[in-house]
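#struct-help
A.M.: can someone run this one for me? Single chain, 206 residues.
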Amino acid sequence: MSVTLIIIAITVLISLRALNSGELLQKWMMNPYMVFHRNQYWRLITSGFIHGSFIHLGFNMFTFYFFGRAVEMEFAKKFGPTGIGIFILFYISAIIISDLPGAWKKKDQINYNSLGASGAVSAMVFASIIYYPLRNIYLFAAIPIPGFLLGIVYILYSYFQGKNMSDNINHEAHLYGAVYGIVFAILIDPSSALGFVQQISTFSLF
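D.P.: on it. Structure tokens below:
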């Protein structure tokens, strides 16, 4: 069984437990006030393993299944058995890094909460885009768009929605997760940046 599937299984089990336990949900979700004023640092990780609804959980895990497996296999190809550890480190650190900037900005807002693996999943998607920029991503499961083009649209959308803050979605976590995914993928394998440029240089709309 792949590490991606193990992480999905753990996340599903914990999320289901939390959905049936308001106390656990409150204790594990990201509350910046509790993190920075009460030193409850575990929330930086546990918030990535709980979800607010079955739809939220299903969408994140569905996306993670496809992109996580692609990144996991790429790490295994590049680093052998060590790739498993790198993949786990990437996922856990992406949960933390994607939440930190927004959490710090809201550290004095005691009523602010967020939860879910979206930031880490976003990191996986964009690491995959670095490695396979021309591979199609299906928007709404129907419209094929090359990954690097959809990635540009996604980053712009997340940035402006994060500024707008007109909904209850943590767009900042999506944005910072995406950026972290790009940076991590290139840092562990600098040649991937050149590979990315070489691949998109061959792209043509027609």
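A.M.: thanks! The first helix runs from residue 3 to 19.
D.P.: also worth noting: Residues 3-200 form a domain with the Rhomboid-like fold fold (CATH 1.20.1540.10).
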